[in-house]
């Protein structure tokens, strides 16, 4: 059984149909990347998997349980989302990462252990005491990832986590994702960066105007895609 299953998901915003019947199965421990032009519905799709919003029709199953308003509170603690633009609290890096554990009532020494481990995964241990609001964009994104890693969710969703970041920060985030995946995390990485998808993903899916055009093993996606639109997208011919 797939860990995440999307069955014919449809979603409208205002009068526009944003997702037009998206189906996808994601296996436990898989790192899958979703690529596609701006406006194709990638963020909308991730928000549905995160249980922040709900489809108009179709269903999402996570670990075999249907994700609904009623089940979301039980499912969401096992899901972590890194947004494109992260808002950090006006507190130290340490406290930003510790927040979810304090919220869960963990003892202080366990919190310290977990926060330090998460910070070292994103190479931020030296900045633990810094005010989060003084960080660079890349450092802030690394804190955002640490905030998710620290509570150890089985499913991690990322919405263009390295858009506009320099190579050094991108490399650290990619390393942390690779490591999390090796530890068995299931990861859905939405990215504009097809090279990043190629470096990290086991499978890649192209979302175009709310339709999942093609999902393939990464090597196949880039070297011998089935769909003409995938060919055009990876060669940069698809204007957007
Ligand atoms: N809350 C919303 N209300 C109205 N339209 C929205 C909303 N969220 C997204 N959209 C529209 O849905 C389309 C897809 O958006 P989005 O999922 O953000 O795409 P992507 O992340 O692929 O760029 C866009 O045309 C966007 O303007
Ligand atoms: Mg988006």
TrEMBL record:
Assigned keywords, A-Z: ATP-binding, Nucleotide-binding, Transport
Keyword Transferase: no
Superkingdom of the organism of origin: Archaea
A single Gene Ontology CC term: membrane
Name recorded for this polypeptide: Phosphate ABC transporter ATP-binding protein
Gene3D superfamilies per record: P-loop containing nucleotide triphosphate hydrolases (3.40.50.300)
Alphabetized GO MF terms: ATP binding; ATP hydrolysis activity; phosphate transmembrane transporter activity
GO biological process: phosphate ion transmembrane transport
Originating species: Methanosuratincola subterraneus
Domain ABC transporter: 4-234
Pfam families named among the record's database cross-references: ABC_tran (PF00005)
Keyword Transcription regulation: no
InterPro entries in the record: AAA+_ATPase (IPR003593), ABC_transporter-like_ATP-bd (IPR003439), ABC_transporter-like_CS (IPR017871), P-loop_NTPase (IPR027417), PstB-like (IPR005670)
Lineage: Archaea, Thermoproteota, Methanosuratincolia, Candidatus Methanomethylicales, Candidatus Methanomethylicaceae
């Amino acid at each position: 059984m797939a860990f995440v299953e999307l069955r014919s998901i449809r979603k409208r915003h205002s009068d526009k149909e944003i997702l037009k019947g998206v189906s996808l199965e994601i296996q436990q421990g898989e790192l899958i990347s979703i690529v596609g032009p701006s406006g194709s519905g990638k963020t909308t799709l991730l928000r549905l998997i995160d249980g922040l919003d709900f489809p108009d029709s179709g269903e999402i199953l996570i670990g075999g349980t249907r994700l609904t308003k009623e089940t979301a509170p039980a499912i969401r603690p096992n899901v972590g989302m890194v947004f494109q633009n992260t808002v950090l609290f006006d507190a130290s890096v340490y406290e930003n990462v510790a927040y979810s554990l304090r919220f869960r009532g963990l003892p202080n020494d366990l919190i310290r252990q977990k926060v330090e481990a998460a910070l070292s995964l994103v190479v931020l241990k030296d900045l633990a005491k810094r005010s989060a609001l003084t960080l660079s964009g890349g450092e802030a994104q690394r804190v955002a990832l640490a905030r998710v890693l620290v509570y150890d969710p089985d499913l991690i969703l990322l919405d263009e986590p390295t858009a506009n970041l320099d190579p050094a920060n991108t490399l650290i985030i990619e390393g942390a994702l690779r490591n999390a995946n090796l530890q068995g995390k299931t990861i859905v990485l939405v990215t504009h960066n097809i090279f990043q998808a190629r470096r990290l993903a086991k499978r890649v899916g192209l979302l175009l105007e709310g339709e999942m055009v093609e999902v393939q093993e990464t090597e196949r996606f880039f070297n011998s895609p089935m769909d003409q639109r995938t060919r055009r997208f990876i060669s940069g011919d698809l204007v957007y």
